[in-house]
Write a structure and sequence with these properties.
Blueprint (H helix, E strand, L loop, with lengths): L2 H14 L8 E2 L11 E14 L11 E6 L4 E8 L4 E6 L5 E6 L15 E6 L2 E6 L4 E5 L5 E5 L13 H6 L5 E2 L8 E3 L2 E7 L15 E5 L5 E5 L5 H4 L11 E5 L4 E5 L5 E5 L4 E5 L8 E2 L10 H10 L2 E8 L4 E7 L18 E6 L5 E6 L11 E3 L4 E5 L6 E11 L1
């Protein structure tokens, strides 16, 4: 944790001792009022396999299906955080093509970390986000640095803040760049999704905005938008996983859809106005916060709270079918706190919403798809979901198609 975040962590945890003691209950007030008309059906003929090299690992949190209009090609790409390289495969054939090495030090060094991410705007314009440096680097096809944006430098004065300063001043979000938290760049504007990753207690929607825009045509000027829902200011949600923020963009109407783990509703926004829309699971009931301040709860108890609750995850826009998908993590009932909890065994279902956010159905996936929120792709043929297997030499994606019941 860097110095800025450490100061913030200590001060706001102290403040939290006197707050967040009430149990907040987010009720699924529309549960059971909708009839499913569509499902996601597995297509046994349309899956994909990508053979891995000896340095690639199964666990990965950042993939991108990149369509290169300059040569009418589609590439499957992923960030290998073991050797810090971005891998390129031919999406149609599954053949490995090349990899771009991410340098740690030197003139092209970006100080990579295990939770970094990337976004390919073109084959010669690749944005790499360094979580350690809080910087967004523009790289070319060789991995050479062409430009650096570091918005945390604008908040260096946080080091001298007093307790009251944290409560009244704006606190910048921690950017996350992953499959479910993608970057977008439109007409010179970069759009990023952030979150408050530490236990910040009384989360405030005014001083803790989450979405970042960077105007690359105006000296990289930065603006922030949209805070956490009201329930985050009223209860203690414990583990960081309940503070994650997920989003997607619909380019047709230029709007973003934001999903919070504890909320049965989603939020559609053009970054000026916000619409709250019900998008709850047919399985999930009430989601409750913890009943005591942050310091009272151990790490074990906070994780147990996360395991025992439903939580919402990635939200996806499918441009080919003009629908949305929202992933739901189901409770893990048989975990053993005396053992290592990884890999976590939370089953996943996917809610289907039409272009107007009407509920169309929900598909409960088998446990072998429990990591789909980290690795999924939307293709012309359907939704490709990562399948966990015992074969460490390949990644397997199964095709699921939208099917009327």
């Amino acid at each position: 944790m860097n110095l800025n975040r450490y100061i913030l962590f200590v001060v706001l945890n102290f403040v939290c001792i006197l707050s967040c003691t009430n149990v907040v209950v987010n009720e699924n007030d529309m549960q059971g009022k909708f009839k499913a008309t569509y499902t996601l059906k597995k297509n046994n003929e349309g899956g994909k396999k990508f053979v891995l090299d000896s340095e690639s690992v199964q666990r990965n949190r950042c993939v991108q299906l990149f369509e290169d209009v300059s040569n009418d090609s589609v590439y499957f790409t992923f960030l290998n955080t073991y050797n810090y390289s971005i891998y390129f495969y031919d999406f149609k054939t599954g053949d490995f093509l090349r990899k771009i090495k991410i340098e740690k030090e030197g003139p092209n060094g970006v100080n990579p970390y295990v939770i970094d991410g990337y976004y390919i705007a073109s084959c010669d314009s690749i944005y790499f986000y360094s979580h350690r440096n809080h910087s967004l680097y523009l790289l070319n096809h060789k991995g050479e640095k062409r430009h650096t944006i570091n918005y945390m430098t604008k908040f260096d004065n946080m080091k001298s803040w007093k307790e009251k300063d944290f409560q009244k001043n704006f606190v910048p979000p921690m950017v996350q760049l992953s499959t479910g938290k993608p970057m977008y760049k439109i007409n010179g504007i970069i759009y990023l999704c952030g979150e408050m990753t530490e236990e910040l207690g009384n989360v405030d929607s005014i001083n803790q905005l989450l979405l970042t825009t960077i105007d690359t045509q105006n000296d990289d000027s930065i603006a922030f938008h949209l805070g956490y829902p009201k329930s985050y200011r009223e209860g203690n949600w414990g583990e960081n996983y309940f503070r994650e923020v997920f989003w997607c963009m619909n380019p047709a109407n230029k709007s973003f859809v934001v999903s919070f783990p504890n909320d049965h509703y989603i939020y559609q926004t053009d970054l000026k106005q916000v619409n709250k829309i019900y998008a709850g699971s047919m399985y999930a009931g009430d989601i409750k916060s913890l009943d005591s301040p942050t310091f009272i709860q151990s790490k074990s108890r906070r994780l147990s709270h996360y395991f025992e609750n439903y939580s919402y995850n990635t939200v996806i826009y499918d441009k080919y079918r003009n629908v949305y998908y929202r992933m739901v993590e189901h409770p893990w009932k048989d975990y053993d706190t005396s053992k290592d909890w990884r890999p976590w065994l939370k089953q996943v279902s996917i809610i289907i919403l039409d272009e107007n956010f009407n509920l169309m159905g929900e598909t409960l996936l088998d446990m072998e798809y429990r990591f789909v929120a980290l690795k999924f792709m939307v293709s012309e043929d359907g939704l490709l979901l990562y399948k966990q297997t015992d074969n460490d030499d390949e990644w397997v994606y199964d095709l699921f198609t939208l099917t009327k019941l």
